[in-house]
Amino acid sequence: MKTFPKFAALVALIAMLSVSGCKIAASTPAPDATTPTAEVSFPFETQGSVADLATQTAIANMLLTATPEGVAAQPGDATATPDAPGVDVATNTPAPDVAVQPGVQTDQATATPAPVMPAGPTPVVIRPATYALQPGEFPYCIARRYNLDLPVFLAANGMTIDSKPAAGASLKIAATGKWNTTLYGPLSIKTHPGKYTVGSGESVYSIACKYGDVAPESILAANNLKNDTDVKAGMELNIP
């Protein structure tokens, strides 16, 4: 039979190959887990070379391991170390001190206190040629105010010491003469300068008469008032 030798030769060849494969596998040492394997080349193009990746990794590690002293805090950096109190993080400059005054708020809505209006200059009292008597005034008051010779003043207006002319009466004022302090006392009745609280029914004219040598217009100027009607009961007036 001719096919048998061919079949036997094929079997023998297979056996030889099997034995040879076992020897090769047994004689080749297994890869050591600690031995670096060869770098595998990718069959496609990467975003960067392995050297570039290694360089970037090294830089990142240096930044992560840098000490706080070696890294300067940048404005707006969320990882920057907070600055000391009183220092502006954005500009690294000391914040300005704000002096808070007692009784004054520091917000923008705070209104500025109204300035105190200064009193006007005290007018120089000059003797007029005539004077219209005002409610609350009497001849003695006018003679003291303008430093008049009382008997001469009364005689010039047809009055006696007991005369009581009504308000509105026009009185003549002499250009010469002065008040006799020996006979009628000092020109000033009340001490001034000072303060006076206006009572009910009082006017700047009647208040001036209480002081003797103080003119109504001087009282108005000392209190920054324009008219006699500005004087009201309960007001505290400065008497010059």
Write the layout of secondary structure elements.
Layout: H1 3-27, H2 50-65, E1 87-88, E2 93-94, E3 130-132, H3 139-145, H4 150-156, E4 170-172, H5 181-184, E5 194-197, H6 204-211, H7 216-222, E6 236-239
Helix pairs in contact: 6-7
Task: Give a verbal description of the structure.
The protein is mainly alpha-helical and 240 residues long. The protein is built from seven helices and six strands, in the order ααβββααβαβααβ. It has helices at residues 3-27, 50-65, 139-145, 150-156, 181-184, 204-211, 216-222; strands at residues 87-88, 93-94, 130-132, 170-172, 194-197, 236-239. The chain has a two-stranded antiparallel sheet. A hairpin with a 4-residue loop joins β1 (87-88) and β2 (93-94). α6 packs across α7. The longest helix has 25 residues, at 3-27. It starts with a helix and ends with a strand. Mean pLDDT is 72; it is low at 21-31, 33-55, 63-73, 76-84 and 98-117.
